[in-house]
Automatic annotation (TrEMBL):
Name assigned to this protein: Zinc-ribbon domain-containing protein
InterPro entries listed in its UniProt record: UCP012641 (IPR031321), Zinc-ribbon_6_bact (IPR011201)
Domain of life: Bacteria
Domain Zinc-ribbon intervals: 6-90
Amino acid sequence: MKTTACCCGATLYFDNTSCSSCDRQVGWCDACGQLAAVERDSSTCLACGVGVTPCANRSAYSVCNGMIATGAGPLCRRCVTTTLVPDLSDPANVERWGVLEAGKRRLLYGLDAIGLGEAWREGEPPLRFKFAADQGDEKTLTGHADGVITINLKEADPVHREIARQEFGEPQRTVIGHLRHEFGHYLQKRLFGDEPGPEVTAVFGDPAPLDYSEALERYYENGPPEDWRDRHISAYASTHPWEDFAETASFYLDMQAVLDTLAAHGVIVTEVPADFDAAIASYQEAALRLNEVNRAMGLTDLVPYIVPPPVVEKLRLIDNGVRAAAGR
Ligand SMILES: [Zn+2]
Ligand SMILES: [Zn+2]
Ligand SMILES: [Zn+2]
Ligand SMILES: [Zn+2]
């Protein structure tokens, strides 16, 4: 996550809505695609000079920091990707929705950063999001189908998330983690279609002999195989080849985001290595040091996984697919 400089010289961060130094309004400008301050009197973006107004989700609910060219909208390009929101008459729902939108903006930023911006801007099927709460017996299942990523609103509740994190042994149960995992399912279909060929099954395994729901049930009853660490990036990835793909893709997006952030701040690395093997090596090295920082603060490890050789090949397949899709 890169930072930018306000016209006053102060540093602007991705989630900022105003500059802490000069108090100008700040936000992500759709007109120039960057974080920028807004001139007080003229409401023009100080990065591109276009007249801007706040995204409607910003002015009405404070769940976005977007700005759109005056006359466009009412929603910014990131907010229009959400096609279902929870009941907003409940203030707690607005707050949780805001947490999910903030995670979604980071996901979309990350896709732009690795050249997959087209996937969410004009993909086929287009990438869309639904954020909903359980309605009595009608449960909202977090998942992906036909380009639509659905996240249950309770994943924005830290108490629920912590209980689930312990119960299911998922150290990375976070909002951004959910979004990256579900995007992983979308990415699999975008890159390899509904019936991935032998180049995918050779690396991830053949899904044909496995019934999906039986595989999940077995996992939740018996846990992962003892040697999952030798072959998978997480315990949950051992459930089914396509869950493995989503978990591995999620790790891939984590890696890109962390390296991008470290490079932007000149910490540990000065640039994101262009070569895949060098990027993996950089990330593993950075992870050791960043985990030590977290342990110094009594937090869980930032990168709780070690990458065994079979997972390197899974990541390589995804990296090749992403580079091809991004035209790199
Ligand atoms: Zn400023
Ligand atoms: Zn602008
Ligand atoms: Zn917005
Ligand atoms: Zn999944």
